[in-house]
Write a structure and sequence with these properties.
Elements: E1 2-11, E2 14-24, E3 29-33, H1 40-47, E4 55-60, E5 72-75, H2 87-97, H3 102-115, H4 131-143, E6 149-153, H5 161-176, E7 180-184, H6 189-194, E8 197-202, E9 205-210, H7 212-216, E10 221-227, E11 232-237, H8 240-249, E12 255-261, H9 265-275
Parallel strand pairs: 3-7, 3-8, 5-6, 6-7
Antiparallel strand pairs: 1-2, 1-4, 8-9, 10-11, 10-12
Length: 277
């Protein structure tokens, strides 16, 4: 669905993208992670057709991003809605611009209002809504025309747990129906819940790509033992059973708790960031 190869983009002396390469298939959720300045938002702007790259190639369903805009849904990091306009009016406007009419438009609005729990405030102006409610409204606008590619740029930033879960559920549903999804976030547990593949960006390029299991394989986890005298000992290890036996074999002190933590996405990002310094 999405093919991007060797994208470059400069802003004066700043190199925002430097050989950025990424492919995302239909039905795939790709978690795009990286620190601020890694190039994530610039990449989203190029794929959505808002800006042109200085070099490289990108296609959406085989088309140039500008020509493919009707098949792309974008939920940008900053709220981009009309404050005096209600959520329902937003959905009617953007659904209509995408070609939805009458019964089909009403049907899609009703589905999104229910899925994103917008019913209680759907007819209120966006400007009076909370940040979490605005996040849901912005996601609904991106989803209204059932695009083949969804670009979700930090969609749950500052959102409450209810908003977060509603958005994740809808993203998973749309991917299950065949949409390709690029989901940028700093909240890595969301990607585990979405069962997303991962693309780790740094300094304007993707430095690692694959499934969570593939990228976590071989990374150390942690074994933590707390003794009755309240001393806590932790060991970073790729073999938790052996590490635990070593910790316990050298002491006769009573143990009050044992915690074994598997490597997670935070460990992955730290290892990759250090490796590419």
């Amino acid at each position: 669905m999405l093919e991007a190869s060797e994208l470059s983009k400069r802003y004066g002396d700043v190199r925002a993208l430097d050989g950025f390469t990424l492919s995302v298939a239909a039905g795939e959720i790709c978690g795009l992670v990286g620190h601020n300045g890694a190039g994530k938002s610039t990449f989203v702007e190029i794929v959505s057709g808002l800006i042109r790259p200085d070099g490289g190639n990108v296609t959406v369903g085989g088309r140039d991003p500008v020509r493919a805009r009707s098949d792309v849904g974008v939920a940008p990091q900053s709220i981009a809605l009309y404050r005096p306009v209600t959520i329902r009016e937003h959905l009617k406007l953007f659904g209509g611009l995408a070609g939805l009419r009458r019964a089909a438009l009403r049907h899609e609005i009703d589905l999104l209002v229910a899925a994103l729990r917008l019913g209680e405030f759907c007819d209120r102006p966006v400007g009076v809504l909370s940040g979490g409610q605005q996040r849901r409204a912005q996601a609904a606008v991106a989803l209204i025309h059932r695009p083949g590619l969804l670009l979700m740029d930090e969609p749950t930033a500052g959102a409450d747990p209810e908003t977060r879960q509603a958005l994740l559920d809808v993203v998973k549903q749309r991917a299950g129906e065949g949409a390709a999804v690029i989901y940028t976030t700093h909240y890595l547990p969301e990607l585990a819940e979405l069962e997303a593949t991962l693309a780790v960006a740094r300094a304007g390029r993707v430095i690692a790509r694959g499934t969570s299991a593939e990228l976590l394989d071989g990374l150390p986890g942690e074994v933590r033992v707390t003794f009755q005298d309240e001393e806590e000992v932790s060991v970073s290890t790729t073999d938790p059973t052996a590490a635990l036996m070593d910790l316990l074999s050298g002491t006769e002190r009573p143990v009050t708790s044992v915690d074994v933590r598997k490597p997670d996405l935070d460990d992955l990002y730290r290892s990759l960031a250090v490796a590419h310094v």
